[in-house]
Design a protein that fits this description.
Blueprint lengths: L1 H46 L8 H28 L5 H4 L4 H19 L5 H8 L11 H24 L5 H16 L7 H8 L1 H17 L15
Length: 232
């Protein structure tokens, strides 16, 4: 009987060691993610200026400050890359998946505000600090989720732009989001969460189109004339 107990102990003791090691790794990851999520929240706060002020200079300053905060994010991912065990990305990525999606959306928003075009996956990885890592990489799903979140934010931006008297911006946003929607329609999405999120994109497109339509019938679009409700 004693021999049997020794055998059981020898079998199960390594299991506990493995569990303890995994728990220690997860604790380290949680600690680093707190350091990453702090500048993430600050970037969100900085970029909310687009919904409150129609001042290009202030939006530019917000983008610049956001770029500086992304340096802290990159530093955090440098630390994270050092503690992820070899080949264990998907074992632990539940800790950084959602923050990474938000960071991709914020990087995409900064690039849109600065340049007016869609961020590429490689550029997003560079900005948030997931490029050239040994154990980390920017997952395609996280990048695509970020773009879908961008569309939602831009639909809100279009509405608020009208409030501040900028009637040309909704037209620009409408064209951009329509092209983004067309791009997603080229994909045969199988992932459930991504597919559901993509289904919501049509409501963002519709919301922006309604803003543009409302401006057009009032003749408020640049170079536009009022459209009679009868002809519409």
């Amino acid at each position: 009987m004693e021999t049997s107990n020794i055998i059981i102990t020898n079998i199960f003791k390594p299991f506990q060691d493995h569990i303890n090691s995994e728990q220690d790794t997860r604790e380290e990851i949680r600690s680093i993610m707190k350091d990453i999520e702090k500048p993430l929240r600050e970037i969100i706060t900085q970029l909310q200026v687009i919904h409150h002020k129609e001042n290009c200079n202030e939006i530019g300053i917000a983008c610049l400050k956001s770029r500086e905060l992304f340096e802290e994010v990159r530093s955090g991912f440098d630390k994270l890359d050092k503690i992820i065990p070899e080949g264990q990305y998907y074992r632990y990525n539940d800790h950084w998946r959602y923050p990474t999606q938000r960071l991709c959306y914020l990087a995409a928003l900064v690039v849109y505000l600065e340049k007016g075009f869609l961020i590429e996956k490689a550029t997003a990885a560079q900005i948030i600090g997931m490029d050239g890592k040994k154990h980390l990489h920017l997952d395609l799903e996280d990048y695509l989720m970020g773009l879908l979140n961008l569309a939602t934010e831009l639909s809100r931006f279009a509405v608020n732009s009208v409030t501040y008297g900028n009637y040309s911006r909704p037209l620009e946003i409408s064209k951009f989001v329509a092209e983004l929607n067309a791009g997603f329609r080229l994909l045969n999405l199988k992932n459930d969460s991504l597919r559901k999120r993509f289904d919501a994109l049509k409501y963002d497109v519709k919301k922006i189109e309604e803003v543009v339509y409302d401006l057009s019938i009032r003749g408020l679009l640049p170079g536009g004339d009022p459209v009679s409700t009868e002809s519409t």
